[in-house]
Design brief:
Layout lengths: L2 H18 L14 E6 L4 H19 L3 E5 H11 L2 H9 L5 H11 L7 H12 L6 E5 L11 H10 L6 E9 L5 E3 L16 E3 L3
Parallel strand pairs: 1-4, 1-6, 2-3, 3-4
Antiparallel strand pairs: 4-5
Length: 205
């Protein structure tokens, strides 16, 4: 981890805190889309988790904003175990017809015959919170790598399921050009990220 990595995450969290605690929450890049992305270097994963817990505690203690966390990685692996298992995952990742076939096949098998597989799980968990959180953090998104599920697809599906809770996708990756993101710094993996989704991105400076 470089000093610039640490500084970028620290500054991103400060900016996010300002927007989340404003009189009117202002994380949305477009009206009606309550999402934002917190980008940080993959090398900062464990530091990011620690800072996010402290960040959530500060939101609750100082600003009276309830925060909740959902592990995307845990949902992915639970779903894989409940369908074809880990062996199938490895086989699919090696298909000759490439990344797109692998990605579509795994996505379709996350929950058989269930549209919006991951998004539906997230909505179900969110509905189970009592009281409802004021902000939701989607963490451990590395479980989507390398070719399991596009994070942009996940956000799009949550939007279609009418998620209204301000939601922050914690995104391990790098800013390639402007707001284009490269998921988990994977070579040739620019198309796997959230770069094409019109949301506000914290941590691209």
């Amino acid at each position: 981890m470089t000093m610039s990595d640490a500084s970028s995450l620290d500054e991103a969290l400060k900016s996010l805190e300002r927007d989340l605690t404003a009189d009117r929450v202002s994380i949305a890049a477009q009206s009606g889309i309550p999402f934002a992305i917190l980008r940080y270097s993959p090398s900062e994963e464990f530091r990011a988790r620690r800072l996010l817990r402290l960040f959530a505690h500060s939101l609750e203690q100082q600003h009276h904003r309830r925060a909740a966390f959902i592990s995307v990685s845990r949902l992915v692996w639970n779903a894989i175990r409940e369908t074809d298992g880990v062996d199938y995952l490895f086989q699919t990742e090696g298909l000759d017809d490439g990344v797109q076939s692998a990605q579509n096949d795994i996505k379709g098998r996350l929950i058989p015959e269930e549209p919006y597989a991951l998004a539906k799980q997230i909505m179900d968990i969110l509905d189970g919170f009592s009281p409802k959180p004021d902000v939701l953090f989607l963490v451990r998104a590395g479980g989507l790598a390398p070719h399991i599920y596009r994070s942009s697809t996940l956000l799009d599906e949550l939007h279609k399921l009418n998620l209204t809770t301000p939601t922050i996708l914690c995104y391990p990756g790098s800013a390639v050009v402007g707001t284009d993101l490269q998921f988990y710094d994977l070579s040739g993996g620019e198309g796997l990220g959230a770069y094409n989704y019109r949301v506000k991105i914290y941590g691209t400076n």
